[in-house]
């Protein structure tokens, strides 16, 4: 956006530090979860479930929008190139490899390189 690469600190934060911290906060909040109660009234499980569903609708729009824009955009995307690379890897793994040992130093008759 500014025409220069971001500092290594920011790259490390975006790819490693932030996801690990967010995952840790999520795990600890799930471990300490208590049902909602206000002034001694504990809400029924269906009401708590409805609240979670409403909250998930707003959160799931972000990855759904990302996936939609990646799949419908023109050109090559990571998902499309990854599928192509997987097909190429399968071809490479199935290709026969020839191994040979030349006793004396000289030109290899099969591949014409000098040993």
From TrEMBL:
| GO MF annotations, alphabetized | amino acid:sodium symporter activity
The protein here is known as Transporter
Coiled-coil annotated residue ranges, if any: none
Tell me where in or outside the cell this protein is found. Answer: Membrane
Which superkingdom? Eukaryota
Report how it sits in the membrane: Multi-pass membrane protein
For biological process, the GO terms are: amino acid import across plasma membrane
Sorted keywords for this record are: Membrane, Transmembrane, Transmembrane helix, Transport
Give the lineage: Eukaryota, Metazoa, Spiralia, Lophotrochozoa, Mollusca
Record keyword Transcription regulation present:
no
Which organism encodes this protein? Answer: Elysia marginata
Any stretches that span the bilayer, and where are they?
A: 7-29, 49-71
Q: Signal peptide span per the entry?
A: none
Q: Name one Pfam family in it.
A: SNF
